[in-house]
Amino acid sequence: MARSPRTLLVLAFAIFCTLIFLYRMPGLYAGRQARNIKDTSVSSSPLFVGFRANWPLLQQAVVSYLAAGWPADQIFVVDNTGTMDANARGLLTPANPSYLPYDQLTQRGVNIITTPTQLTFSQLQNFYLSTAISHSRPGYFWSHQDVAVLPSSPTASFHQEVHACLNQKLLAPDREPGAVLFSKQDIPNAPDSLTYMNVAAARAIGGWDNAIPYYCTDWDYYSRLRMANYSTPDCKAGTMFDVATVVEDAPKMFFEALRPTVKAKAAGEKISSDAALDARFNALQERLKKMGNAKVDNGRNAWHGRQTGGPGEPFSVDPLVAKHVFDGLIGFSRKMFEDKWGEKNTEFMDEAGLTLADMWKLVLEHKG
Fold this sequence. Notes:
Layout: H1 5-24, H2 26-33, E1 47-51, H3 55-67, E2 75-79, H4 102-106, E3 111-114, H5 121-134, E4 139-143, E5 147-150, H6 158-170, E6 179-181, E7 194-198, H7 199-205, H8 217-227, E8 239-242, H9 250-257, H10 274-298, H11 319-341, H12 361-367
Parallel strand pairs: 1-2, 1-4, 2-3
Antiparallel strand pairs: 4-7, 5-8, 6-7
Helix pairs in contact: 3-9, 9-10
């Protein structure tokens, strides 16, 4: 039966609205944004940046990577706030620690993945691993949200510097790297700022131990890698800063101080002189150093409780309650680490003579 032009127009409009709805559905947001994760080359390894709280701090981290030459389509911000679809639907206010404006990230080409609920640190690491496995990735990067990165010079590419060092480590004739750490440099307060993870090695040791949810779980993981005859070498690339505060107007500060890719000069376009660019780069570097030192003096986790909004908003809890729970889980994590290995504050348990056979040995002996 023939349809009138008006009926066809209504049907076309309905189909269009349905497609827009599906495109914007929070449940499909990750799939739509994670479009480039299937590229399996090492040079395009995804970079996961977990977000729990404090949007200004995350924005600074992401902008620093972008300004330093890291491709936007390789960055995957992982919304680990546990607020379900609230951020995707724009239901949270900026005062809420969980507030994450998706549009400000996607407008820069950055991908977003949402966890089904709030995960602990070790669970989040296994989520990264699971995501990489499901897309047949041989490896991936992960970074904290409370870091900022700079290349070795204002015109260098941090992304290229990272991969240059990574390729050297992956081709090393000795033990296969289970993880490559771009962190232990001349900045003593920047642990695990950026790390490349070997998926095959993670499979071999069973991933991260969810029984150790936060502190010491990285000691456990990297020690088990070395016990399984993998290496965990350090790599030098640019400079990374462990920070708890942000520079004013971070996007402007970073993009004006860094030019990793100098484009051809357009007609009438004014290009900053090298001297001016160097001055801005040096000033930003000094500012970040001071911010890193201040974090050491004021406490690593002080930024967690900086925002005080959220109660009454979807899937949100009082920030004071969240901090209390977080502090309690840190204590529990250290206790589980001690129960598992019988050691306190030992980062390199393999060097202390422990082996994989020693895991939970004291617990099993006691229960037996």
